[in-house]
Every structure is written in C-alpha cells, then in structure tokens.
Predict the 3D structure of the following.
Amino acid sequence: MDNLVYEAKARAEPGSMLFHIVAILLAIPFIMVMVLLFVILLPEQVWHGILIIVASSLTPIAIIWAIWPTRYQIFNDKVRIVLGRPFHRDIRFDNLEAAIEGGLPDIFTLRSQNYITCFSRSIVIMVRKKGMNINTTPSNPDLFLENLNKAMAEWRKYNISY
C-alpha cells in the first residue's frame, strides 16, 4: 500500500510563468487574424477553417499542460511526478541508486530526463540504476532531498533484494 511521505509543489518562478502568459497572449491575436482571413478569403468554408485554427492552437497548450510537472510526491516505495491530471510518472526505489543535489549544468546532460519548471541553481537529480537520470525542481530542494533520502533508507532497510 502506498503511503504518502512528503509532497512538494514544483517550483514556479516569475520567468517561467511569464513565458506561458506571453505565449497565450501571442496566440490570441494569431487566432483572430487567421479567422478573419478565412472569413474574407473563403466565406463558404469558414467553419472548417475556424475549427482547424482553434484545434491547432489548442493542441500545443494541451500538450504543455499534460507534460508540465505540478507536484513531486514521495511515497514509501516510489517517487511520483504529478503532471497535468490524470498523468503522472512513478520512479520506484528499486531502480533508484541515489538522490543528489545538482546545478544548472546538469540540466543539459544527455543522460537525463528533465521534469523541471524553471532554470534553477539547485535541482534534485535522481540517479537511476537502469535508464536515464531524472532532474526535478521542487519548491524546497533541500527538504525534498532530505525526505527522499530518508524514505529510500527506510525502504532499503526492509527490502534487502534491491
């Protein structure tokens, strides 16, 4: 049975939120211009064009929402990265070798998957036995790292076959 040990929100800095706001504000005039062009140029096919424009504009927003981390949860046997509902990614402790603190250059390594929400000097790197390492940016990296290492030590105490 999974018991939640610790939960941290993903770090959100004004720069990363500003990026999303600007992207949405730039998409709105684009959609309006495209709709007007369809109305003027192709009046008999307006609704098909409007539907295509709206669908193609909302698809990237839906994809970003689905893969953007919102919370990081530590259970008694795994770490869960909560993405846009209902999506999540579980990393079991039997595949985790260590959890260490890293820095900005670690984000750009080829042996890691990034579940980061901002460019930060302090990230948590989950070093895996098999597969790529996982980089995260919880709101309080030191407390998250402390609780993760504590939960992993407790799990290893009762699971000798890791």
In short: The beta strands are 4-9, 71-75, 78-82, 88-92, 96-102, 112-115, 123-128, 133-136. Residues 52 and 139 are 38 Å apart (CA to CA). The helical segments are 14-41, 46-67, 141-158. The chain has three helices and eight strands.
